[in-house]
Amino acid sequence: MKAKIVHISDSVTKQRSGTIADLLNCIVVIDREGVILDVNEYVTAMGKSRRKLLLSDNIGESILLHPAVEAEPYVKVKIESLIAGNSFTGLQVNGMLPGTCQKFWARCFGVNCRGYCIVGFEDITQQKLLESESLGAVQKFQALFENHPGGVFCFDANGFILEVNNGSCKVSGYNTDELIGRNFSRFFIRQDLPTIVASAQRVFRGKPAHFEARFIRKDGNKIHLFVTFIPITDKAHIDGYYGIALDITERKRLSKLIRSLKEEYEDLFENAPMGLFSGCLDNDGEYVISRLNRKASSIFGYHRDELYRLPLTQLVSDEDQAGLTETFEDNIKSQAQEVLGLRKDGTTFPAWVSVDAQEDQRFIIAVDDISLRKEMEATQARLIQELKDSHHALERKSKLQQLVLRMLGHDFRSPFNSILGGARLLMELGLTDEQRELVDIIHRSATHELKLIDNLLKFSHIEERNIRFNVEPVSAHVIAHEIKVQHGEEAKKKHIKLIVDQVDSVYFKVDLDLLMRNVVGNIVHNAIKYSYPGQEVSIHVLKDRDGFGVIQVQDKGIGIPEELLPYIFDINLTKNRMGTQKEKSTGFGLYIASQMAKMMGGQVDVETVPDKGTLMTLRVPLALQARHRLPRKRSRAHDLEQSH
Fold first, then answer.
1. What angle do CA 191, 197, 202 make, to 5 degrees?
2. CA 506, 512, 515: angle at the middle one, nearest 5?
3. Whose CA is closest to 243, among 255, 231, 252?
4. Which residues, other chains included, contact 72 with Cβ-Cβ below 8 Å and sequence gap of 6+?
5. How many CA atoms lie within 13 A of 625 on its CB side?
6. Do the beta carbons of residue 460 and residue 406 sit within 8 Å?
7. Using one digit for the tens of pLDDT, what is the confidence trace for 287-324?
8. C-alpha distance from residue 163 to each of 8, 170, 178, 488, 562 (Å)
9. How far apart are CA 168 and CA 177, in angstroms?
10. Is the pTM of this model over 0.70?
């Protein structure tokens, strides 16, 4: 390899001409003391005076070799060795021409003859200069060879690798020893070998060759290489070639990706759900169409060929032409506007146009026919107005119904209260059993209807959110006592045992009156109504883990059918159930209880098993008892609280 590099360098450096001096085959004869006895014509050619100066001088100190900077001590030793009888050849010395400042290089030989010695000098100054220049060229070439970013291979005439650089190892994954001595066919995919061989044959015709081939790395991965073959010549003879290989795998991948993206773009452009145009400003100052998709031609009713080179202004109404042109002239990016499109048949339609005007007078436009959208918007606006009108009408109707409901409720309460009062008076008279039963029926019916009227009024107030709460801290013991007082007689009449067996010392943040009459009252009433005589209704008033006050009402009655469970708190529940003794239901109780609980910051939950009973759980916020006292008007409850 290095010999070939020298040849290449020689082809350049040998063109230099001229030498420092013509000292070829200078002969000097010295005696055994080193004194110069004679010189040949190459020395005498420098002038007799020079020759005289040389004669009788000691050769080791002669101006012929003076000042022999680098070699002087060594030369003196060699001259002494020569005089002693030891000849020498090939000695290189560095001297200076007599009477000049020019240095020279000479190759010396010395022969010891009997009685004298002969010393010869051959000027090799030019050779040294050429070698120096050649070495510089070799070093530069070697640096380029080693530091080339790609892989550089040197092949012989048969394709065997002679030398590689570091880049070759990086590209191939092999080390230097694994590459040198191998044939290139060992590393390339078989299908690409004909291309590589043809390129090598081109190189031997003296021409560089370029090709792409797939290379098999040491790890088994295949990469794409772009390879350049360059011939190596020696005196017009080609005895090998260089291969410069660049890994273009990533470039190939990116090129493939770009092609794929371009294909996708073309597909998206052509099949876009809106019309797409692109074009530029022509020589007449018109913005004309150079490209469009199928949707664009269908929107405007033209054949695609008819739209090509057509000015854009012919696709919009007269009043929109100026605005569209202004958009282009201002180089507005992504400007969207609504225009009136103009079809080939002269009809117009509302269109939404998005314009992207480029600085090089090119443009891209997206057009969407919004006729259907405009119709839908108009229909939507009409429907919204109709809904608003209906809503106002319903509000007026609802307010009227609630007003009538309240009037009827208040008007009906008096007669039913009178009926209840009369029934109670009759019960105190000496009636027969049959008469007493009839009066009892009257009393129960009037009570039910009065409760229904009360529930209707409560429902009306709930719907209007017209309920005022007097929220205050209430002891759990007070609530338990109120439950016994209000529902004890009802439970006793039905032979139901009402048990309050767990009461925590906590305070509930509630309106006691509304809580007992509308929430707990309805829940306990239902538990009694749907229990059989002889059963129990258990009540717990306590604090749960989440910091809420809890009132649990557990019965062992008929439970709630699974199909009714999702609707028991719904006002629209149409199927009302009779109690275990045919007690009627108003259908409002649990709805009122649920709504009232929410208004006080709580909720009502239910768990039930048909024919085994129901557990109703009311959760309400707790209060801090240290900051509150019970009102005096509930002195009986307050006394009960203090007793606990």
1. 140
2. 100
3. 231
4. 65
5. 11
6. yes
7. 899 899 999 999 999 998 899 889 888 899 888 888 77
8. 17, 15, 11, 111, 90
9. 12
10. no
